[in-house]
Amino acid sequence: MNKGTLNQLFFTTVDRHANLPFAFRSKVGGAWIPITHRETSQRVQAISLGLRELGVRAGDRVGIVSENRPEWALTDYACLTARAADVPIYPTLTAKQTEYILRDSEAVAVCCSTDAQVAKVLEVRSGLPALQHVIAFDGSVQRDGVLTLAELEAKGRAAIGKYPDWKREALAVPPDDLATLIYTSGTTGDPKGVMLSHHNIWSNVQAVLQIIPVGAGDACLSMLPLSHSYERMVDYTLFQAGVLINYAESFDTVAANLQEVQPSVVLSVPRLYEKVYARVLENALSGGAVKRARFPAGCHSRRRSPTSSSSRSCRRAPAGRSGFSCPVPRRSRPTSRSSSTRPGSP
Q: Which end of the chain has the least Cβ crowding within 10 Å, N or C?
């Protein structure tokens, strides 16, 4: 396999799929709002050049503290094309945990989704000597020293004439250049920043596309945190394939969002499917004799299927339907629901 970069992936994809209806969708104000590939290209350039106007240089680190949303992906591609490395941070982390990652990575800028995330960063900003810029995705955020994403994009658009070689420079990034720093959970001490190059991720994407038959006309629901390497790679993969990426409002709304967007493919970790399966099982067993009689007897076990795996998995919904395809254990008779077998973790 030849070596490639995520910048090559980005530019090739927005050109190849320019005629598709949409690249991303998210729910705003109760409605699903789309972003086209053309708009994605334009906004990524604006954000990328806006970062350069702020003084972000090749090799700098930029933090992203946000839930899943299109702005996450746009900022990610903007950092990559600005030749900076982004540092995803879980929005559920505390201010102190966020401070540690921003300080350890020496981030010069951080992009936050909401006012609450901005407040968390400002609370610890005095302990972040390298941090120069705080950017908010939500346009409603109004704080001293905080720039909104719309303002950053305006800076970038105004400066397009100053950077005629932006695309050429972005495409010249070597495959082994640092693309991102992803910090571990820190369960065995302070989190450690894992250095991933463009080719580290790009090669995974190309390998996945050889075995998972997805493409233009498919739609997915992005539900796992983009701060995690798995969902990040999934988004790159689906974006390159031309799949419409719908961002779930939150993990709690996944079931409702599935019904709304009717995805043809869902990529997740086994733990999610186990939770769905457990809920279906609980509803069946508590629904009276008629419902229990309709539910396969072998499903009364809470043990995992012998064919299940702790690896990441993909489930494709049948045509015209949305939902999960969960393996059903095949057993000759019901077993105790108090089985000591513990479900695996993601």
A: N
* Cα-Cα-Cα-Cα dihedral sign, residues 234, 239, 245, 248: positive
Neighbours of 320 (CB within 10 A): 7
- Helix crossing, 95-105 with 115-123: angle to 10°? 70
By the 8 A CB rule, do 30 and 24 touch? no
Angle in degrees, 0-180, between the axes of helices 70-81 and 229-241, rounded to the nearest 10: 90
Asked whether the beta carbons of 243 and 209 are under 8 A apart, the reply is no
Q: Quote the pLDDT of residue 314.
A: 59
DSSP string, 155-201: HHHHTGGG-TTHHHHHHTS-TTSEEEEEE---TTSS--EEEEEHHHH
The predicted-structure confidence for 5-30, as pLDDT tens digits, reads as follows 999 999 999 999 999 999 999 999 99
Work out whether strand 178-183 and strand 193-197 pair parallel, antiparallel, or are unpaired.
antiparallel
Collapsed DSSP state (helix, strand, coil) of residue 38: helix
pTM of the model: 0.83
Count of alpha carbons within 13 angstroms of residue 204, beta-carbon side: 16
The arrangement of strands across the sheet holding 178-183 comes to: 146-148, 133-136, 109-112, 61-65, 85-89, 178-183, 193-197
Rounded to the nearest 5°, which phi and psi values hold at 273? Answer: -65, -35
For the stretch 238-297, pLDDT in tens is 999 999 999 999 888 988 999 999 999 988 888 878 877 887 888 878 777 766 666 665
Q: Are 82 and 108 in contact (CB under 8 A)?
A: no
Q: In the chain, what are the domains? A: 6-203 (3.40.50.12780)
Calculate the CA dihedral of residues 137, 143, 146, 152 and round it to 10 degrees: 50
- Bridge partners of 27, per DSSP, are 32
